[in-house]
Design brief:
The complex is a heterodimer of chains A (155) and B (291). By secondary structure, chain A is mostly helical. Chain A has helices at residues 2-10, 24-35, 38-56, 62-77, 86-111, 118-154. Chain B has a domain at 190-267: Rod shape-determining protein MreC, domain 2 (Thrombin, subunit H, Beta Barrel), CATH 2.40.10.350. The chains are: A mainly alpha (155), B alpha+beta (291).
């Protein structure tokens, strides 16, 4: 987890496609919330958020609040939504990313760090949601393979 | 596609606990409040001290990747850029000769009048720290970077950070071996500036898309596209005369009191690797930083 966070912080966050950013931590938390569900997914999201807040040097609480919220909602909806269809996965991941960004914007506005502007949603959130939704499909395939590999080793 | 391709069946959809979520959210809010009071600085400092060498290594590795991407981008623009730079170079050579003559004259006049500057002089050569960018803002809504120098190197909050091309931002938090730099393109950044050659002054602010806009310029100020924008030094937070960028667009409405201009930053923030922290200038830091 810490490795992913450092790579996200030092490498991925510095690479932008237009203004879109790839968020590895979001991808991981999304996947893990579906696999583990319940309190396990929620707890891992909290740990990830806490580490990201500490390592990024950003306003504390930003990811510690937003990641568990998203993990909670993903785990709740995974009972009712089928993620077997890649198109459904793409769509739901994109919507959750928009929600994730809106939560962050609200927190940043509350902390006085970044004023809430409509352009932020249009120029940053929407392209990033598209990028991460597209990345979610191959990411889930890779993570599922790794997870199965890890489980079979333990067995 | 079967479920197992995306999500292995073990685990399953267990309902998360509302109480646990509330506990985590409360913890998050508590952390935010503690951070504002500065109580979490030692913890953040300790974590950054451990992770910064790893981030440094990753940033060195990523430099190669950045350069490879940059090479591909540059291939498209090389010929035009080359022509433009040749003309610019010719112009600058002439300007440089004129400026040297003016400098000599200026020095003589200062000695003659026993003139003292209002802001302390800062010396690029001796009062600076070279730093490498090792981290970026992961949220996308704020624009800051983490550099690998801190209090141990004499870096303090409020110090200006520059490259040879111009102003990058200001140090907002200084830990023992790392510092956080708020970029001038951050939407919460606001810098007193003036347009070279004229009397037009205003405030340069960042925008969500990462560009700059200069506001509160008097409506009767005559501005042209291409003019250079520099820091005014007003307020004492930044030295005067640091290059911010160039005017690319002017927005002027007849009924308005002020006009606005869009500025292209002189620093390429997408390729920021090495920066300088100006230690020679002691800024006036007013109140607590928002980050």
């Amino acid at each position: 987890m810490l490795g992913i966070i450092i790579v996200q912080e030092s490498l991925i966050s510095g690479l932008r496609l237009a203004l879109a950013r790839l968020d590895l931590v979001f991808l991981l938390v999304f996947f893990w919330s579906i696999i583990k569900g319940g309190n396990a997914g929620l707890s891992w999201a909290f740990v990830a958020g806490l580490l990201l807040d500490l390592v990024s040097g950003g306003p504390m609480g930003l990811f510690t609040i937003s990641l568990p919220l998203i993990a909670f909602l993903v785990a709740l909806t995974s009972e009712h939504i089928s993620y077997t269809n890649p198109f459904a996965l793409f769509l739901i991941a994109g919507l959750f990313f928009i929600l994730y960004d809106l939560i962050q914007l609200t927190i940043l506005n509350f902390l006085g760090c970044s004023p809430f502007r409509a352009e932020s949603i249009l120029l940053i959130t929407l392209p990033s949601a598209l990028l991460n939704a597209v990345a979610m499909v191959p990411a889930c395939l890779i993570l599922a393979r790794l997870y199965r590999g890890g489980m079979s080793e333990r067995a | 596609m079967s479920t197992t391709k995306f999500f292995p069946e073990s685990g399953g959809a267990k309902k998360p606990s509302w109480r646990l979520l509330l506990l985590f959210l409360f913890s998050g809010f508590l952390l935010a409040i503690l951070h504002k009071t500065g109580l979490l600085n030692p913890l953040q400092d300790a974590v950054l001290s451990i992770t910064s060498p790893i981030q440094y290594g990753v940033s060195l590795a990523s430099s190669s990747l950045h350069r490879a991407i940059a090479i591909l981008e540059d291939i498209w623009h090389l010929r035009e850029e080359n022509e433009r730079l040749k003309k610019e170079l010719e112009r600058l050579i002439v300007e440089n000769i004129q400026l040297r003559e003016l400098e000599v004259e200026n020095k003589a006049l200062r000695e003659l009048l026993n003139f003292t500057q209002e802001n302390p002089a800062f010396d690029y050569a001796t009062a600076r720290v070279v730093a490498r960018v090792i981290g970026f803002d992961p949220s996308g809504f704020t624009r800051y970077v983490i550099i690998n120098v801190g209090q141990k190197n004499g870096v303090l909050p409020g110090m200006a950070v520059v490259t040879e091309r111009g102003l990058v931002g200001r140090v907002v938090s200084a830990y023992s071996s790392t510092s956080k730099v708020l970029l001038i393109t951050d939407p919460s950044s606001s810098i007193g500036a003036y347009i070279e050659g004229g009397q037009a002054t205003g405030m340069v602010e960042g925008t969500p898309e990462g560009s700059l806009v200069m506001r509160y310029i008097p409506i009767d100020a005559n501005i042209s596209v291409g003019e250079v924008v520099l820091t005014s030094g007003l307020g004492g937070t930044l030295p005067k005369g640091l290059v911010i960028g160039q005017v690319i667009e002017i927005e002027k409405k007849d009924y308005a009191l002020f006009q606005e201009v869009r500025i292209k930053p002189s620093v390429d923030f997408d390729r920021l690797e090495l920066v300088l922290v100006l230690k020679g200038f002691k800024p006036i830091v007013s109140g607590e930083e928002s980050h």
